């Protein structure tokens, strides 16, 4: 099981899909699974039930996917901040894709499907989350100015290094 975390626009889904092909594992995007479970879009869940309800659904869905079959799982940018989800992530193999704030905003543009982009304090949210991402990461991969292939190759090399370190023989 490999979990990808990082701020919106870090490339979790794009890199995750490519990693899953390289590793021969299925790929899941946590937001997509939440949407199909609740039969609503993330945008609707935020608008109707609020962020706290979304975080609860995110936590429950994360818990069930982490105990399911092996996969590459991209997790939305806010999960690492929720205490329960953070605890689950700390026990998993987590690749943190680092992205600068300006580059993240350039990549996601004004996506209406991402309700957090409407927050006036988004820059503070970003700053606050950096420590949360670090705290759950087993591997950190910078993405600034780099393409999917390079990021994916770094992640694979880092994961191989980690697995050699845990199983030296
Ligand atoms: C969120 C990020 C989104 C999605 C939801 C909330 C956040 O996922 O989970 O809109 O709080 O940063 P991505 O990081 O895949 O955009």
Describe the structure.
The chain is α/β, with parallel strands linked by helices and 169 residues long. The chain has a single domain, classed as P-loop containing nucleotide triphosphate hydrolases (Rossmann fold, 3-Layer(aba) Sandwich), CATH 3.40.50.300. The chain is built from eight helices and five strands. It has helices at residues 12-23, 30-38, 42-49, 51-66, 83-90, 101-108, 122-136, 148-166; strands at 2-5, 27-29, 72-74, 94-98, 139-142. The protein has a five-stranded parallel sheet, sandwiched between helices. Helix 1 packs across helix 8 (148-166). Shikimate-3-phosphate binds at residues 8, 12, 31, 42, 76-78, 114-116. Shikimate-3-phosphate is lined by residues 8, 12, 31, 42, 76-78, 114-116.
- Outline the low-pLDDT stretches: none
Distance between the termini: 22 Å
Number of self-contained structural domains? 1
Which CATH class? Alpha Beta
Total number of beta strands:
5
Estimated structural class:
alpha/beta
CATH architecture descriptor: 3-Layer(aba) Sandwich
Q: What bound compounds does this protein have?
A: shikimate-3-phosphate
Number of helices: 8
Query: What Rg, in angstroms, do the CA atoms define?
Result: 15 Å
């Amino acid at each position: 099981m490999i979990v990808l975390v990082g701020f919106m626009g870090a490339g979790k889904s794009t890199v995750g899909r490519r990693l899953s092909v390289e590793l021969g594992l299925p790929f899941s995007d946590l937001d997509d699974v939440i949407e199909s479970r609740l039969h609503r879009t993330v945008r609707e869940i935020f608008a109707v039930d609020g962020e706290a309800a979304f975080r609860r659904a995110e936590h429950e869905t994360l818990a069930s996917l982490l105990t399911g079959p092996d996969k590459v799982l991209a997790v939305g940018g806010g999960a690492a901040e929720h205490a329960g989800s953070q605890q689950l992530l700390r026990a998993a193999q987590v690749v943190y894709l680092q992205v600068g704030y300006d580059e993240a905003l350039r990549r996601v543009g004004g996506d209406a499907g991402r309700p957090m982009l409407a927050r006036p304090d988004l820059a503070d949210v970003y700053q606050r989350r950096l420590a949360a991402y670090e705290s759950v990461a087993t591997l950190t991969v910078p993405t600034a100015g780099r393409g999917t292939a390079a990021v994916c190759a770094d992640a694979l090399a880092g994961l191989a290094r980690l697995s050699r370190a845990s199983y030296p023989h």
